[in-house]
Amino acid sequence: MSEFQGKVAIVTGGTSGIGRAAAVAYAREGAKVVVAGRRAAEGEETVRLLRAQGGEGFFVSADVSKGAQVKELVDRTLQKFGRLDFAFNNAGIEQEPTPFLEQDEETFDRIMDINVKGVWLSMKYEIPAMLKTGGGAIVNTSSALGVIAFGGIEIYVASKHAVIGLTKSAALEFGKQGIRVNAVLPAVIETDMFQRFTGEKPELRAQMTAMHPIGRIGKSEEIADAAIWLSSSKSSFVTGHSLLVDGGFTAQ
Fold first, then answer.
1. Per-residue pLDDT of the chain (252 residues; tens, 9 = 90+)
2. For a Cys-Cys bond, which of 19, 159, 222, 249 suits 187, CB 3.0-4.6 Å?
């Protein structure tokens, strides 16, 4: 029997891409999954996919930048399943490439609210729930751009650096209480976000692909597999870690 059997996972940003793949992966391992996101139709489709392979779960509409909604997400998880063991805090948004001096406060606030405040709020409410049953594992989605820089998307880069700081600090504070906190750092992954970023620009897609020494961009399932490993006992001595899953992007 899988160690995930009978356990419960929350996946934020579970309506598509990496989040959807992770929700399905947790269910495949035997966990009950609560899918959270802002798009109800897409979230329900994720639930349908995980149920199609015998999994159990439900969707909660939640904007992770709103504390009351994150609290309700965790409360509903506990009401339904009675515990919380894993959290994949994956919700995030991209930044449209813009010269630094043309970037505005509205863009800054929107990206920081979701990418940084959203992770902070998620952990704020997930950790007490995990402590009730002796601990758990949290995986936060940062980015390969959380450890390097990229011009034109400075706000996004700063937000992903901040996720790593939150991850490390929470890992230090709660390690002795049975909670491990790690981050997964993807490079370019074939998702809706990537499609929006490249738009109708095949030359930009080719350029982004060429930046990966492995010769291709990544798949959502490859990031989901990393999240599963970081959640499992196979990574039991790993906490405060930033796991690059980037096709060699940052090795150059």
1. 589 999 999 999 999 999 999 999 999 999 999 999 999 999 999 999 999 989 999 999 999 999 999 999 999 999 999 999 999 999 999 999 999 999 999 999 999 999 999 999 999 999 999 999 999 999 999 999 999 999 999 999 999 999 999 999 999 999 999 999 999 999 999 887 777 777 777 887 888 889 999 999 999 999 999 999 999 999 999 999 999 999 999 999
2. 249
For the chain, the C-alpha Rg in angstroms (whole number) is 17
118: tokens are 């959203």
* Distance in angstroms (rounded) separating the CA atoms of residues 16 and 24: 11
Give the residue carrying structure tokens 């809706």.
Answer: 192
Of the candidates 10, 26, 93, the residue with the CA atom closest to the CA atom of residue 59 = 10
Nearest residue to 26 (alpha-carbon basis) of 53, 61, 63: 53
The catalytic residue among 59, 86, 120, 156 is: 156
Contact assessment for residue 135 and residue 177, using Cβ atoms and an 8 Å cutoff: yes
Nearest-angstrom CA–CA distance, 46 and 20? 6
pTM of the model: 0.96
Contact by Cβ (8 Å): 120, 70: no
Question: Looking at residue 219, what DSSP letter applies?
Answer: -
Query: How far does Cα 169 stand from its chain's mean position?
Result: 17
Q: Burial of 237 by CB count in 10 Å (0-12 exposed, 13-18 middle, 19+ buried)?
A: exposed
What CA–CA distance (Å, rounded) separates 15 from 41? 8
Residue with tokens 């990574």: 235
CA distance linking residue 141 with residue 185, whole number of Å: 6
Specify whether 156 is catalytic. yes
Judge contact between 153 and 168, C-beta under 8 A.
no
